[in-house]
Every structure is written in structure tokens, then in C-alpha cells.
Amino acid sequence: xxxxxxxxxxxxxxxxxxxxxxxxxxxxxxxxxxxxxxxxxxxxxxxxxxxxxxxxxxxxxxxxxxxxxxxxxxxxxxxxxxxxxxxxxxxxxxxxxxxxxxxxxxxxxxxxxxxxxxxxxxxxxxxxxxxxxxxxxxxxxxxxxxxx
Length: 148
What we know:
It is a single chain. It contains 5 helices and 7 strands; from the N terminus they run E-E-H-H-E-E-E-E-H-H-H-E. The chain is an alpha+beta fold. The strands form 2 sheets. It has a 4-stranded antiparallel sheet with strand order 3-4-5-6. It has a 3-stranded antiparallel sheet with strand order 2-1-7, with no helix packed on it.
């Protein structure tokens, strides 16, 4: 299949499974996964969405369960949280040294924003058991679907 990302008309999603999670990697200009996360999580399913936002920071994280957008925030902007339970990961963010218990930044003086972002990504990875090796996404044969 040949797909021209320059048209922007459709998204391509590559799907697979690893470590007890199914995953999809979306290519294109849209963000269908983020918009439909609650729908994906119906009937007891958990769904985690990480949108790297390479061209327009910040990257964002969202978590949905049982058809509900539980929580989300920008990576590096964790003070602004949303969802039905915006403080769902606050204890983990506090334990990681990203935020204080009042939800304000806890970044030690001299620590870079990149270090704070690494702490946040590490806690997401640990909390949800997301250990997807790069090799799985880049080199394994995965099914691909075009979403119009």
C-alpha cells in the first residue's frame, strides 16, 4: 500500500499487540485516537493515548476507561489536568517529583524541563505497564488500515 501523507485526506493506523496491550500507531494529520478515546474504552477497556505533538508542543497524555475520559494533561504542563477525574494520577505525579500535592510544580531548582518530562513519561509507562520496544513498532510486520 502506498499512502501520500501530503494529501492529509486519510490517516493510516498500524496495529499490533505487546505486553498485554493492543496498540495503534496513527500516521497522518488528524488525531482520531484522541478524539475517540472514550469510545475505544467502552465495556471495561482501558485506553491510553500519547500524542507526541512533535511540531506543536506540548505532547499530551489521555486515559479513558469504561467509556469515560478519566484524565489527561500536557507533558510538561501537568498543572493543567482535565477529564472526569483530573487528579487521578496526582499521587503518582507527586511521588515522581513532578507536582506538589496541591497540584503545583515541584521541579527542583536547576532541573531542566526535559528531566521533568522524562519523570512524567516514566510514571505513565510504569503505572500502565506500557513497555513497547521501539523495534516492535519500527521493524515488526504490523497490520495497517486507512481511516477516511
